[in-house]
Amino acid sequence: YVIDRKIGSPTNGSILEVFGELLYGKGLAVKDSEEVYEELGEIFPKREQRKCLDDYLTFGYYFMQILRSKGTDKKVAKILHLPAEKMGRDKMDENGDINGAWYCDDWANTYKNKPKFIPEFKGKLDQPLMVKSVVPHQQGQTYFSLPSYVQALQDAEMEEEISNYCINHIKNGLSFGYIINFNNGGNLTPEQKNEVEAMIKAK
Question: Which residue, 134, 129, 151, 113, is CA-closest to 61?
Fold first, then answer.
Protein backbone atom coordinates (compact mmCIF):
# COMPACT_ATOMS: atom_id res chain seq x y z
CA TYR A 1 0.00 0.00 0.00
CA VAL A 2 2.71 2.51 0.95
CA ILE A 3 4.73 1.59 -2.17
CA ASP A 4 1.69 2.38 -4.32
CA ARG A 5 1.24 5.73 -2.55
CA LYS A 6 4.89 6.56 -3.16
CA ILE A 7 4.64 5.71 -6.87
CA GLY A 8 1.14 7.06 -7.52
CA SER A 9 1.22 10.35 -5.62
CA PRO A 10 3.59 12.92 -7.20
CA THR A 11 3.57 15.06 -4.05
CA ASN A 12 4.31 12.19 -1.68
CA GLY A 13 6.92 10.65 -4.00
CA SER A 14 8.74 13.96 -4.49
CA ILE A 15 8.83 14.75 -0.77
CA LEU A 16 10.22 11.30 0.08
CA GLU A 17 12.85 11.55 -2.66
CA VAL A 18 14.08 15.00 -1.60
CA PHE A 19 13.94 14.15 2.10
CA GLY A 20 15.98 11.00 1.38
CA GLU A 21 18.68 13.05 -0.34
CA LEU A 22 18.85 15.47 2.59
CA LEU A 23 18.83 12.72 5.20
CA TYR A 24 21.56 10.71 3.49
CA GLY A 25 23.83 13.70 2.82
CA LYS A 26 27.28 12.28 2.17
CA GLY A 27 26.57 8.97 3.86
CA LEU A 28 28.07 7.57 7.04
CA ALA A 29 31.20 9.27 8.30
CA VAL A 30 34.02 8.32 10.65
CA LYS A 31 35.83 11.18 12.36
CA ASP A 32 39.62 11.28 12.36
CA SER A 33 40.10 7.79 10.92
CA GLU A 34 40.40 7.35 7.17
CA GLU A 35 41.31 3.70 7.62
CA VAL A 36 38.14 2.87 9.59
CA TYR A 37 36.08 4.89 7.07
CA GLU A 38 37.44 2.85 4.16
CA GLU A 39 36.84 -0.41 6.04
CA LEU A 40 33.27 0.67 6.80
CA GLY A 41 32.74 1.45 3.11
CA GLU A 42 33.83 -2.06 2.18
CA ILE A 43 31.68 -3.76 4.83
CA PHE A 44 28.61 -1.55 4.42
CA PRO A 45 28.73 -0.05 0.88
CA LYS A 46 27.04 3.29 0.18
CA ARG A 47 24.63 1.58 -2.22
CA GLU A 48 23.37 -0.63 0.61
CA GLN A 49 23.17 2.34 2.97
CA ARG A 50 20.89 4.15 0.51
CA LYS A 51 18.64 1.11 0.15
CA CYS A 52 18.23 0.83 3.94
CA LEU A 53 17.51 4.55 4.20
CA ASP A 54 14.95 4.35 1.39
CA ASP A 55 13.12 1.53 3.19
CA TYR A 56 13.20 3.52 6.43
CA LEU A 57 11.61 6.52 4.73
CA THR A 58 9.00 4.44 2.89
CA PHE A 59 8.02 1.92 5.57
CA GLY A 60 9.31 3.35 8.85
CA TYR A 61 11.76 0.46 9.41
CA TYR A 62 14.44 -1.53 7.57
CA PHE A 63 16.35 -4.80 7.66
CA MET A 64 20.05 -5.58 7.18
CA GLN A 65 21.61 -8.96 6.56
CA ILE A 66 24.91 -9.42 8.39
CA LEU A 67 27.36 -11.88 6.88
CA ARG A 68 30.10 -13.44 8.99
CA SER A 69 33.64 -13.86 7.74
CA LYS A 70 34.74 -17.41 6.94
CA GLY A 71 37.68 -17.37 9.35
CA THR A 72 37.68 -18.28 13.03
CA ASP A 73 37.60 -14.63 14.17
CA LYS A 74 33.83 -14.40 13.47
CA LYS A 75 33.99 -10.80 12.31
CA VAL A 76 31.41 -8.96 10.24
CA ALA A 77 32.36 -9.46 6.61
CA LYS A 78 29.47 -7.65 4.93
CA ILE A 79 26.31 -5.72 5.75
CA LEU A 80 23.69 -5.78 3.00
CA HIS A 81 20.16 -4.49 2.61
CA LEU A 82 17.12 -6.77 2.82
CA PRO A 83 13.94 -5.46 1.10
CA ALA A 84 11.41 -4.62 3.81
CA GLU A 85 8.41 -5.65 1.69
CA LYS A 86 9.80 -9.20 1.58
CA MET A 87 10.40 -9.49 5.34
CA GLY A 88 8.18 -10.73 8.16
CA ARG A 89 9.29 -10.74 11.80
CA ASP A 90 9.17 -13.93 13.84
CA LYS A 91 6.53 -14.42 16.51
CA MET A 92 7.41 -12.95 19.91
CA ASP A 93 8.45 -15.57 22.48
CA GLU A 94 7.22 -15.87 26.07
CA ASN A 95 9.87 -13.34 27.21
CA GLY A 96 8.72 -10.72 24.71
CA ASP A 97 11.76 -11.18 22.46
CA ILE A 98 11.71 -11.48 18.68
CA ASN A 99 14.49 -13.85 17.70
CA GLY A 100 14.51 -13.59 13.94
CA ALA A 101 12.76 -12.69 10.72
CA TRP A 102 11.39 -14.50 7.69
CA TYR A 103 12.30 -13.72 4.09
CA CYS A 104 9.97 -14.53 1.19
CA ASP A 105 10.09 -13.36 -2.44
CA ASP A 106 6.29 -13.39 -2.68
CA TRP A 107 4.16 -13.49 0.46
CA ALA A 108 1.03 -13.89 -1.65
CA ASN A 109 2.34 -17.23 -2.89
CA THR A 110 4.27 -18.92 -0.09
CA TYR A 111 3.60 -22.37 -1.59
CA LYS A 112 5.96 -21.68 -4.48
CA ASN A 113 8.15 -19.25 -2.51
CA LYS A 114 8.84 -20.91 0.81
CA PRO A 115 9.81 -18.37 3.53
CA LYS A 116 13.31 -18.70 4.96
CA PHE A 117 14.08 -18.02 8.62
CA ILE A 118 17.04 -15.76 9.49
CA PRO A 119 18.11 -15.47 13.16
CA GLU A 120 18.24 -12.01 14.73
CA PHE A 121 21.61 -10.36 15.39
CA LYS A 122 21.77 -9.18 19.01
CA GLY A 123 25.46 -8.39 19.33
CA LYS A 124 26.83 -11.92 18.97
CA LEU A 125 27.56 -13.15 15.45
CA ASP A 126 27.08 -16.89 16.01
CA GLN A 127 25.57 -17.70 12.58
CA PRO A 128 27.01 -17.25 9.07
CA LEU A 129 23.98 -15.13 8.12
CA MET A 130 21.94 -13.04 10.55
CA VAL A 131 19.43 -10.21 10.30
CA LYS A 132 19.33 -6.89 12.10
CA SER A 133 15.78 -5.54 12.30
CA VAL A 134 15.78 -1.77 12.79
CA VAL A 135 12.23 -1.09 13.96
CA PRO A 136 11.78 2.06 16.09
CA HIS A 137 9.43 1.85 19.07
CA GLN A 138 5.93 3.19 18.48
CA GLN A 139 2.92 3.10 20.74
CA GLY A 140 0.45 0.43 19.73
CA GLN A 141 2.89 -1.26 17.34
CA THR A 142 4.53 -4.59 18.18
CA TYR A 143 6.23 -6.04 15.11
CA PHE A 144 6.53 -3.08 12.76
CA SER A 145 6.57 0.71 13.01
CA LEU A 146 4.54 3.06 10.84
CA PRO A 147 6.09 5.52 8.35
CA SER A 148 6.47 9.12 9.55
CA TYR A 149 3.95 10.30 6.94
CA VAL A 150 1.22 7.80 7.85
CA GLN A 151 -1.28 10.65 8.45
CA ALA A 152 -0.82 11.78 4.83
CA LEU A 153 -1.44 8.40 3.17
CA GLN A 154 -5.14 9.13 2.73
CA ASP A 155 -4.32 12.46 1.07
CA ALA A 156 -1.79 10.75 -1.20
CA GLU A 157 -4.44 8.26 -2.29
CA MET A 158 -6.93 11.09 -2.84
CA GLU A 159 -4.42 12.85 -5.10
CA GLU A 160 -4.12 9.67 -7.17
CA GLU A 161 -7.89 9.26 -7.44
CA ILE A 162 -8.38 12.88 -8.51
CA SER A 163 -5.76 12.35 -11.20
CA ASN A 164 -7.45 9.11 -12.34
CA TYR A 165 -10.82 10.86 -12.42
CA CYS A 166 -9.48 13.71 -14.57
CA ILE A 167 -7.74 11.29 -16.97
CA ASN A 168 -10.93 9.27 -17.41
CA HIS A 169 -12.91 12.47 -17.96
CA ILE A 170 -10.48 13.58 -20.70
CA LYS A 171 -10.57 10.14 -22.33
CA ASN A 172 -14.36 10.33 -22.41
CA GLY A 173 -14.23 13.56 -24.39
CA LEU A 174 -14.87 15.82 -21.39
CA SER A 175 -18.51 14.71 -21.42
CA PHE A 176 -20.74 13.57 -18.59
CA GLY A 177 -23.59 11.09 -18.74
CA TYR A 178 -26.77 11.53 -16.74
CA ILE A 179 -29.94 9.55 -16.15
CA ILE A 180 -32.92 11.66 -15.14
CA ASN A 181 -35.85 9.72 -13.75
CA PHE A 182 -39.40 11.11 -13.87
CA ASN A 183 -42.20 9.68 -11.77
CA ASN A 184 -45.09 8.82 -14.12
CA GLY A 185 -42.96 9.96 -17.04
CA GLY A 186 -44.54 7.28 -19.18
CA ASN A 187 -47.83 9.21 -19.16
CA LEU A 188 -46.29 12.14 -21.08
CA THR A 189 -47.00 12.52 -24.76
CA PRO A 190 -44.06 12.51 -27.20
CA GLU A 191 -44.49 16.29 -27.61
CA GLN A 192 -44.36 16.81 -23.82
CA LYS A 193 -41.25 14.60 -23.55
CA ASN A 194 -39.51 16.63 -26.26
CA GLU A 195 -40.46 19.84 -24.49
CA VAL A 196 -39.09 18.58 -21.13
CA GLU A 197 -35.88 17.41 -22.82
CA ALA A 198 -35.41 20.80 -24.49
CA MET A 199 -35.96 22.58 -21.14
CA ILE A 200 -33.38 20.36 -19.40
CA LYS A 201 -30.79 20.91 -22.13
CA ALA A 202 -31.43 24.66 -22.06
CA LYS A 203 -31.02 24.67 -18.28
Answer: 134
